[in-house]
């Protein structure tokens, strides 16, 4: 079978597409594994007997496996793949460092995810949100991040274009912030190979952890994937970004504001009021650049709205932006103390997280893969109809999921705050748990819809990858960088 693994540059050199292919395939495989784990733990919440009395597959162990596989396995590999693709094409230069270094990053990253998942299932956990992997594994991740950063920034340094396209600014912020967050959240004192203690304690430890936890959402699951959006939306639409000036304002505002908002996860705790007030204030301000970026992406389609009817890839990308806008409106709202008093410790928060994770992160990644994979392998997309089917499976799944979580979360909050005429709690905790059963079944159904769409995408892209290369593949023109290259 003949396949294309590179594209010739004007200078006669070629882009390195092989490493991008490896990260892309790994991302899709981890997506299947991570989402399958999510389906299983959702069934465990609806029917606890699904634990089967096996410690390794109980909800408490599988849940961090699910979150870390989709964040670092699916999301991490997707970010590295797309950033390597975009930085080469917008800088019109080959990846720095050669195959040995890039392959080392690839295998190190897969080892981090695999070892971490095994360790958590075996009971070795830091018990820190989105950072459950043991210290030894996180040290390996830090080494991988440094090597990844070296390749990316040295490629930027040797670019042949004077202009740094805005997508690369977002990827740069994602890489730097992730390394900083990862370092400080893992300042630990080890007492065995798999176990360690944080040097912080009490409220300081909680604040450090949520400084990390929320900024991981901010700089990995938001800023990193905005790098995808700023390249693939204009490319797929065949139009320049709506406002380059707005994209720069979007970048700097997000980079400054996000670092301050982690404290809103600790409202109604021992967190000092001044830290809480600071976090809430910056959470509200964060709405402005977030919606500015959403509008910038959606308005890129101005004059080409008909593509929403005919191009399912555009449909994925624009719908992702819509969910990005919704999630970034809901986040600041949940940070308000009066709303947080109802939502805190309820499934409303879970619904909010998944409206961003499924609606924004996954959908923009799916759209990016549908655009990128045929170009990497020099083939045509196997089936556009299957892309439409995937879109509707994913959209229905997201709606079922988040509506179920809104119902269960708001219901939980109201029941836990309800009092009878004597001033006693109107409901016991067990009654609130019983109330959750039906919403949890609906949430599981939504997850199955979404997972089915992902499996369909993997099949579609597998057939795309394995298709015979066409005799004549139309090569994309290298459009000048400051437009939509």
UniProtKB/TrEMBL annotation:
Enzyme kind, highest EC tier: translocase
Keyword Phosphoprotein: no
GO biological process, one term: oxidative phosphorylation
Residue ranges constituting the Cytochrome oxidase subunit I profile domain according to the UniProt record: 22-485
Main location class: membrane
Binding positions for heme b 2; high-spin per the UniProt entry: 352
Binding site for heme b 1; low-spin: 66, 354
EC number: 7.1.1.9
Binding-site positions, Cu cation: 214, 264-265
The name this protein goes by in its record: cytochrome-c oxidase
Annotated source species: Halothiobacillus diazotrophicus
């Amino acid at each position: 079978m003949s396949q294309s693994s590179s594209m010739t540059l004007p200078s006669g050199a070629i882009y390195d597409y092989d490493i991008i292919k490896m990260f892309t395939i790994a991302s899709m495989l981890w997506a299947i594994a991570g989402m399958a784990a999510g389906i299983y733990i959702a069934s465990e919440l609806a029917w606890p007997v699904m634990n089967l009395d096996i410690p390794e597959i109980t909800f408490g162990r599988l849940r961090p496996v699910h979150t870390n596989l989709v964040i670092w396995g699916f999301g991490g590999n997707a970010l590295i793949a797309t950033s390597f693709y975009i930085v080469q094409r917008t800088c019109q230069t080959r990846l720095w460092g050669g195959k040995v270094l890039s392959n080392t990053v690839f295998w190190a990253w897969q080892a981090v995810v695999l070892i971490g998942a095994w360790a958590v299932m075996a009971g070795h956990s830091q018990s820190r949100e989105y950072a459950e992997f043991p210290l030894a594994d996180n040290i390996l991740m830090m080494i991988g991040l440094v090597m990844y950063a070296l390749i990316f920034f040295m490629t930027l340094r040797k670019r042949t274009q004077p202009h740094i396209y805005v997508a690369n600014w977002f990827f740069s912020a994602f890489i730097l912030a992730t390394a900083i967050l990862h370092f400080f959240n893992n300042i630990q004192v080890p007492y065995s190979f798999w176990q360690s203690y944080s040097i912080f304690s009490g409220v300081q430890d909680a604040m450090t952890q949520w400084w990390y936890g929320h900024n991981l959402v901010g700089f990995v699951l938001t800023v990193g994937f905005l790098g995808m959006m700023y390249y693939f939306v204009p490319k797929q639409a065949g139009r320049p970004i709506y406002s380059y000036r707005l994209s720069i304002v979007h970048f700097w505002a997000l980079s400054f504001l996000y670092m301050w908002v982690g404290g809103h996860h600790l409202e109604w705790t021992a967190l000092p009021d001044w830290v809480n007030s600071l976090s809430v204030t910056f959470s509200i301000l964060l709405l402005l650049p977030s919606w500015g970026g959403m509008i910038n992406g959606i308005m890129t389609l101005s004059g080409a709205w008909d593509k929403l009817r005919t191009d399912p890839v555009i449909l994925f990308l624009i719908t992702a932006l819509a969910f990005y806008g919704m999630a970034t409106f809901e986040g600041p709202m949940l940070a308000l103390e009066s709303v947080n008093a109802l939502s805190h410790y309820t499934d409303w928060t879970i619904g909010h997280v998944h409206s961003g994770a499924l609606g924004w992160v996954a959908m923009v990644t799916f759209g990016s893969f549908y655009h990128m994979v045929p170009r990497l392998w020099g083939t045509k997309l196997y089936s556009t109809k299957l892309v439409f089917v995937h879109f509707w499976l994913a959209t229905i799944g997201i709606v079922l999921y988040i509506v179920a979580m809104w119902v269960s979360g708001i219901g939980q909050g109201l029941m836990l705050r309800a009092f009878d005429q004597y001033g006693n709690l109107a409901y016991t905790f067990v009654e609130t748990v019983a109330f959750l059963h039906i919403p949890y079944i609906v949430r599981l159904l939504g997850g199955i819809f979404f997972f089915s769409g992902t499996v369909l995408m993997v099949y579609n892209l597998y057939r795309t990858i394995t298709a015979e290369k066409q005799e004549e593949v139309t090569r994309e023109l290298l459009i000048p960088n400051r437009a939509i290259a």
